[in-house]
Amino acid sequence: MALAVAMGAFGAHGLRDRLDAYSMTVYDKAVFYHFVHALGILLVALLARTGAIAPAGQTRVAWLLLIGIIIFSGSLYALAVSGVRILGAITPIGGLAFIIGWLVLIYEALRAQRS
C-alpha cells in the first residue's frame, strides 16, 4: 500500500507536467487498481486471522492479487511513462489474475463456512 501511495504521489507531482492527458489517465488507473488490490491483500490477511478463510486460501488469494498488481498496474505504469502501447497487451493478464483472486476468495470463504 505504501508503494501505491508513493506511485500516486510521484504521478501527481513528478509526472503531471510530463505526461499528456491520456497517459495521465492510464497512470491514475494503475494507481487506483494498485491501491484497491493492496487493500484486498490486507483484507485477505484479516479474513484468515478471523478464520473466515484458511491460511492456505489466504496465500493463494494474496499471490493472485499481487501478481495482478505487478502485471496489471505495472504494465499500465510502464505504458503511461514510455508511451509504448504494446505494453497494454499484457494488462488483461493482470486483470485476469485479479478476477481469479477474488473468485478464489469467494470459494475459500464458502469452503471455510462448510468446515
Task: Give an overview in words.
The chain has 115 residues and is mainly α. The model has no long low-confidence stretch (mean pLDDT 96). It has helices at 2-15, 21-50, 55-82, 91-114. The protein has one domain. 83% of the residues lie in helices and 0% in strands. The protein has four helices and no strands. Helix 2 (21-50) runs antiparallel to helix 3 (55-82).
Attribute tags:
single chain, 4 helices, mainly alpha, 0% strand, 115 residues
Broad structural category: mainly alpha
The radius of gyration over CA amounts to 16 Å
The total of beta strands comes to 0
How far the N terminus sits from the C terminus, by CA atoms, comes to: 32 Å
Low-confidence stretches: none
Q: What is the ordering of alpha helices and beta strands?
A: HHHH
Q: How confident overall, as mean pLDDT?
A: 96
* Major sheet summary line: none
Estimated share of beta-strand residues: under 5%
Shape: elongated
Helix content: over 70%
Helix tally?
A: 4
Whole-number total of structural domains:
1
Strands, helices and their partners?
Blueprint: H1 2-15, H2 21-50, H3 55-82, H4 91-114
Helix pairs in contact: 1-2, 2-3, 3-4
Describe the structure in brief.
This protein has helices at 2-15, 21-50, 55-82, 91-114. It is mainly alpha-helical. The model has no long low-confidence stretch (mean pLDDT 96).
